[in-house]
Task: structure prediction
Amino acid sequence: MNLIIDIGNSAAKLAVFHQGEMIDMEYDTNHELGKLENICERYDIRQGILSSVIHLNDIIDSQLKRLDFPLLRLDYKTPLPVTNLYRTPKTLGSDRIAAVVGAYTRFPGRDILVVDAGTALTYEFIDRHGCYHGGNISLGKYTRIKALSAYCDKLPVINPDGDVPEFGYSTETAIRAGVIHGMELEITGYILRMQQKYPDLLVFLTGGDDFSFDTKLKSIIFADKFLVLKGLNRILEYNDEV
Result:
């Protein structure tokens, strides 16, 4: 069995894969992996992979060093099952490339746009030949809400959950509708622009935030919150093969 450790900006995920399928997943904090020991006791873990977009503190580093199985730490030197055309691979977030690998593993031979909506909103493109061209980074939902308050003195930090009218009828709904509708239109715009160049484009939507789209686009969109975890598992297995 494989253990997948994905440490993000807001939280961590621990997942167990067996024969290519995810059989368990736990959310954890990103400053101490409190569930790591328990999940290792419950499963016969043979190997693992670590992806982190933050600098690990001494607590997590010590926990990982105590693991009794080999742990692959994903970095820019790690062999990948796709061709990476990113010009600065050392600066490429491991979660970004893992999401691309996860999507291409499911649909090899297709042009794919991966949209990951979390702390950041990212767009990644991989072509039908398995060449990752790169992507764009924008602000995620919570980041946009916090930025408005930080840079606009009279705007509060609002709860992102609640009524989302077409146009806000209060400051709270104006911020929420502006942020959420703005993100939906941004994502839709990316898809429509990419479709002009790649008519058979597939779109994967992953991450913690949910969005709705025009019905004409729904047939090409696949939602998968665990795309990064699946990509990390594929990278681990690929490194067994090479």
In short: Residues 171-197 form the longest helix (27 residues). The helical segments are 36-42, 58-65, 94-106, 141-151, 171-197, 215-218, 227-241. The chain has two domains: 1-73, 75-242. The mean pLDDT is 94.
